[in-house]
Amino acid sequence: MEAMGVSFLSTTPCLVSLVPVPVPSPNSNSVVANRYFTRAGAIRCSKTETGHVYSEYGFHRRHVLKCIGATVGMELLASSGSWVEMASAADLIQQRQRSELLSNVKETLFKAVKGNPDLLPSILTLALNDAMTYDKATKSGGPNGSIRFSSELSRPENKGFSAAMSLLDEAKKEIDLYSKGGPISYADLIQYAAQGAVKATFLAAATRKCGGDEEKGRTLYAAYGSNGQWGLFDRQFGRSDTEESDPEGRVPLWEKASVQEMKDKYKAIGFGPRQLAVMSAFLGPDQNATEAILVTDPDVSPWVQKYQRSRETVSQTDYEVDLITTLTKLGCLGQQINYEAYTYPVRKIELSKLKL
Question: Contacts from 267-276 at CB under 8 Å and sequence distance 24+?
């Protein structure tokens, strides 16, 4: 049976013509290389009988189509390279913008906290209570800045925190003036204020170990402290604010709550006795008094004693690392971090207007 099919002229160079042709050396009669000549050709697509043997340089149609597809694909990849480079450059610019702003924010808040040491305990509890409104069942609440509203700030569990909130309001005004990517959210403001307060307590502890010499204390903290453990916490820069107060009844009055009530609340947000113990400084103005209560519970007591021993060491490693880890987890409850927050368009330079 004769083969049935249709022929067509290819718009691509004929692959069958890639046949090596010997080329003689110009100085001798020997063959030193092969050259490849191209010639016009046609590709015939036809139905063939089973067992048909192709010639030495024959190709199936699918081979040709694969070559064409590969060529087009490579061209697309090559042309997309510029887009990938542009995207990578944009990401780097945004990262730099956020990093520079965060560095300034932390410096502003640390100065504010350090200049008002009497408000340090209130700032810690303010950040805790803003996050403790998180409800695991409904995925609502959390560190969303809701505590800034007077209706929430005036609740019994937040009594006495107005001065701390006013201090942060003043810091926010300063930050918003130099932020090119828009105002900082209260959610970020409160959590990074807590970070500044925690760092201030770490530095104060190092200074005490150096006999009150603050310069030596800074050197000790830089050498043995946990400053390098804040990386994940700093990546959470970009929390969103809520526009209304969180529901009442979600945060205990810590100074009057029993240890069991505290444990129940921590359990409700996914924490345990370990996290309760390490955050003793957040539960009231007097950390020692708070720990004296916590140590009466058999579940919490071993952790309280562990962190007390750690605070007596030069580096406070166990205490500081666990506190940073807990604060990091607390600071993202119920939040969807916007990793493009506070970025802004970069002004393009018109080269034609430059005077050379």
Answer: 268/135, 268/136, 269/132, 269/134, 269/136, 269/330, 269/333, 270/136, 270/329, 271/326, 271/329, 271/330, 273/297, 273/299, 273/300, 273/303, 274/303, 274/322, 275/326, 275/329, 276/300, 276/303
